[in-house]
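Question thread 4412

I'm putting together a teaching handout and wanted feedback from people who do this every day. The idea is simple: show students a protein as raw sequence, then show them the structure tokens that encode its fold, then repeat with a second protein so they can compare. Below is the first pair exactly as I plan to print it.
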Amino acid sequence: MTVIHHVRVHRSEENLAREDQLAYKIAQVAADPVAVEADVVDMIINRVIDNAAVAAASLTRGPVVAARAQALDHPVSRGGHGGTLFGEPNETVSSPEWAAWANGVAVRELDYHDTFLAAEYSHPGDNIPPILAVAQHVGADGAALVRGIATGYEIQMDLVRAICLHKHKIDHVAHLGPSAAAGIGTLLGLDADTIYQAVGQALHTTTATRQSRKGEISTWKAHAPAFAGKMAVEAVDRAMRGQTSPSPIYEGEDGVIAWMLDGPDARYDVPLPAPGEAKRAILDSYTKEHSAEYQAQAWIDLARTLRRAQGPQADTVFAPENVASIVLHTSHHTHYVIGSGANDPQKYDPSASRETLDHSIPYIFAVALQDGGWHHVDSYTPERASRPDTVALWHKITTAEDAEWTRRYHSEDPDEKAFGGRVEIRLADGTTLTDEIAVADAHPLGARPFARADYIRKFRLLAEPVLEPAEIERFLALAERLPELTAAEVQELNIVAKAGVLASVATPKGLF
């Protein structure tokens, strides 16, 4: 049965015992050798496929090319095999922290993998690159890799359920550093004391501001989780060498909670599995059908539905000259982070970066309403964003916070939790069209929940332009046998690009 841990700030003279600290309780969960249940294993396989899919689609994008080049400039450390790099031949490896970095950027670049939203936001699939890189480096088998990934998901999602970072303008990857360190600890079979030190350092080094997701969003958005994964690998290495970390990292009077989060009077209730309880958090997460911010998923589906309902007249009905206004009534988060409530003029700028457009629900809804769907490349091109009829419609779309949708967004009841809202389209002739959607079609409670076949279809769609057919089949065959893989097979759990794909883009030069 899940245990709720009550977390608060402690003065130094209270001398909070190590065993009573949240970082140690996280470490105890990671060190618990509980078996991974079959439905969790199946979902881990799905997410390994999902990560590889979105990484394949991003292999030639600038941030990924740069991160891969950095990794290639770092040879394998002396203590193991090294980790493979997405796109490169399996024989081309880098030191595990740099493999985690390069692959982490590839996975996050398109913002197209899994998500979990509660008190905080997260993409728990970000745990997989660092855990996989270490597994390859040390020669771990598939069963150990599965155990590590199950822990990574569990810890990040449990922290996300309880501790809000964004209201204090702290980036959500502050929950990823500790979870990845814990997952690596499980993979390696480390004791709780060692994992505790790694969790502390990983948190200490991965707290940063949310400016990376504000205004003109930069390429750091994709690098931030990769950095957290890289720091987690280094934190585990340091802890294994007997070194200690700031303590109590969460509860200390100069710690993260007291000075970065809710302050010295803060109280949090953090749920963690009890000793012997299976780690099942991954089953509460959900992936993306569309390459856009998760809160946009349901709105893309609703736009698709609205357009389909108008049939052949859709282009005329939704032509900008025939639309007076469109208001998306939605949750606090959607309104203030990716909606007009953010007061970011860039969210209405046709020349904005892809990263910014990805975080503009007015832009996304306009394009989805016109196109009847979403494409991970075509929907973001400068030509698409600057199309005059799109710009005209886009600037007629605003968002408004609705208390009921905010309540449902934060609901702990999975049957009630919602990430959509209600749209009101007021036409120039006085007609008003209204509709609503609670969750995306691909959500477990949606119209078409994603299953294994959908993950494989997504992988094929994104991989076919850059991988040979035989490589697609080779990877899928390995991934679907994940818990049975030998150490040698884990080292081949990689995607190798077609000849010439990686060479088709210039590799930037840097310091290394």
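The second pair follows. I'd like the answer to focus on this one:
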Amino acid sequence: MKKLFVIIAAIAGLVVSGCASQPISTFPLFAAKNLNALVASGQYQQKIDNFFVINDSSSSMTEEYRGVGFAGQPVPTKFSVEKEILNRINQTIPDLKLTAGIRSFGFGPCLSYQFTQLNLPPVTYSKSSFGTGIDSLICASGGSPLSPSVEGTIADLSATAGNIGVLILSDGHLGSGSVASVKSLKQHYGDRVCVYTIWVGNEEENSGINTLNRIADIGGCGFSTLAEKVASAGDMANFVQKVFLKAGMPVERDDDGDGVINSKDKCPDTLKGAHVNPFGCWVAEIKFDHDKSTIKPEYYDELDNVVTVIKNNPGLSIEVQGHTSRTGKAAYNQQLSERRAQEVKAYLLSHDAGASAALTARGYGWRQPVDTNDTESGRANNRRVEFKVFK
């Protein structure tokens, strides 16, 4: 009995020491593409609310990775490449409100002698928290029983709400029951879940690609890809975009901040604080009764806005322009237009004495009508004061 115990202890020691001696590879600096602008513009919007990784941490992942796209020192194992892929995903995910989690599968000391291990319970996503979860994938050992990990994932996600993206990284040697377990995941969460797979293997293992393709197809909305297809910054950005984002409605810009989007703005340099019409043009028009230069109270708010515009835009030069309808003699109308301009200027100065340097007043008589003088409504539109801005 004592001899048997010594043999078992020796085997366990070899397993532990083999796990601890697995090399850690370093990879060239990865410069992730920034996807935040796509989201901020509205061109794309968030597609999933929960992101859950199932990582193959079985002994086959300790083999050297001989594919392309992940040159590391020392030569990386497939397990090291899996972790590097997750790191690159983490760097590329835009600023989204997510929950994220990680679970691994295999057996032996790397998984506390369990077939599956929850490395990161679903938590509010941040690059640091997800990075901690990746770091907890310390080594690979044992067989490849995917099923217990998927069953655990079903329970892990039970408290989540919204759409779920499940990502499986493996060389495709997943043990019996793997397809059935993913079908169970799909049946449990229905249209909420999409399954994505990344094959991290070598040429002689490409039968695993077919297995991972079948698993991704079960979800009906995910896809399968290869490690080398997500190696570059551009390819990784494309992968993250497809998993996390969907096409949205672009948010049109309003560069001058007047409340009218650029595509409809006929006056793209509106002064700060100015009232505008539906076409984005400053409308500050004061109308007068026939043969009068008295400002009607209904225009006080508009004139107060002109004062605000002057204060918000120092350095302006504004001409207060008086106009009349074509009724009576030209000389009389010229004087009337000047009185109207002076009356408005005086109102503005009474509310902002510092505006005197910005304002001049000029009458134009009946020479610049904006409507016909053949009808009363047309003549009413011509009896006005307008503002012309010189920057």
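Top answer:
Good format. For the second protein you could add a caption like this: Residues 330-351 form the longest helix (22 residues). Residues 1-18 have pLDDT under 50 and may be disordered.
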